[in-house]
Please model this.
Amino acid sequence: MPGYLTAIYPSETELLSRYGIIVGTVGSVAVLCGGLVSAYLAPRTVMTPLYITSIGGMISSIFVILMVLSLQIAGGDEARGVKILYGVMSAAYATAELWLGAWASLLALLLPPRMKTFALAIYMSIVVLIYSSGPQIIGLALRNVDAASPEYFQRTKIILAVFIPVGYWLAGVGLLLSISKVRKDVCGEMITPGGMSSSRKGAFGVFIFLLAALVVALFVTSLVYRWDVQLCKRLVPDLCWGTCRCSRNHNMPGMPYVNC
Model:
């Protein structure tokens, strides 16, 4: 997102600095507010983290779309568009970051004392793995597009304006549908107290392994692709961008068809 925004607002030299300020200040305040709201409503319902996570994400997705399309909304005027950008960016982080502290408290509430730390560690590792796979997927989707071309920015805009909101809405709907079962779980009506079964432990292990394998595969693929492109540039530096087909035109077996 920062790279895309700096590309569409080239005259805004302080955009990244202000982006960081908004993320730091608004995000921090939103996390604290989410925790305070959950604590205040805890005597009435412990489901508040689920509500603010799901609904906050759905609302934030609207502001994310406005961030991506801010320049078009302003009619191409960068001075006006950047004002719209900062406003909707603040609203996006104010609604999207409410869940961080509150969600951890809900996980800790659901688990027996001896499992809390390990379960939270599994949860954080899954979050990190998913976060790290996103840029790799986007990079692979744009691998054959010149970064300076209009097509690159158009595809990036579509990815940011579609994938992020869709992910927020799918997660939000899933969390809302789970509220009744989570409420039963909190009351102890779903799982018999005792140790975790071996089949459940095995299922957790398989899921983590597959997720980690996906991230590693994406990372290795991105490295291999970058190596191929750089090698192609060194071998045939005189070719124009977008016309290099190494194996076909230069008789180099084993080299994939990549754009220089």
Observations:
- The two ends are 25 Å apart (CA to CA).
- Confidence is low (pLDDT under 50) at residues 227-260.
- The CA atoms of residues 114 and 195 lie 10 Å apart.
- Residues 198-235 form the longest helix (38 residues).
